[in-house]
Amino acid sequence: MSSCRVGLRLAACLLNISEARKMYIVENIAKAALLERNGQRHPEVSVLNIFSDPEYNRSVITIAASIDELGLAENLVLSVPGCSVFLFGEADLPEKRPLVQRRKQLGWFTRRDFSALKPDLGAAPARRCGLTACFRAL
Q1: Does residue 102 or residue 38 have the better pLDDT?
Q2: Can you give the residue ranges of the Formiminotransferase N-terminal subdomain domain (predicted)?
Q3: Confidence grade of residue 51 (pLDDT, cut at 50, 70, 90)
């Protein structure tokens, strides 16, 4: 991330994705995080790391962005069709519920019909999958 502004406030975003075996999907989501709504690369957003575990079919993309870019999840929903976003932590305003509490409230581990879930952003998932985001000020 390059910026010459002194005092730039950063936020970290961890995107948890239910996919690790089809790396092109994970890479496309990471690329979408770097783009503005007009399709141009955003100068204040960087993908720091992509960790994928094919055995569990899960990936985590670590992104750093200017605190002014907290609309990143909205941009991802526009760029990744069928994406479901469930917010937690600093991104879950005003409640700021931790991930464990958020999953319990959604019935994430006991639910069988995920199409009835109402995500914070995007479409209802067809099965237990989606993209969850947590933003933290650095």
Answers
A1: 102
A2: 9-135
A3: very high
User: Between residues 51 and 35, which one has the greater pLDDT?
Assistant: 51
Is the pTM higher than 0.70? The answer reads: no
**3-state SS assignment for residue 27:** helix
110 contacts 63 by C-beta, under 8 angstroms: no
Could you please report the per-residue DSSP string of 15-72?
Answer: EEES--S-HHHHHHHHHHHTB-TTSSBPTTEEEEEEEEETTTTEEEEEEEEEGGGTTH
| Measured distance CA(76)–CA(80) in Å, rounded | 6
Side-chain-facing half-sphere of 111: CA atoms under 13 Å: 16
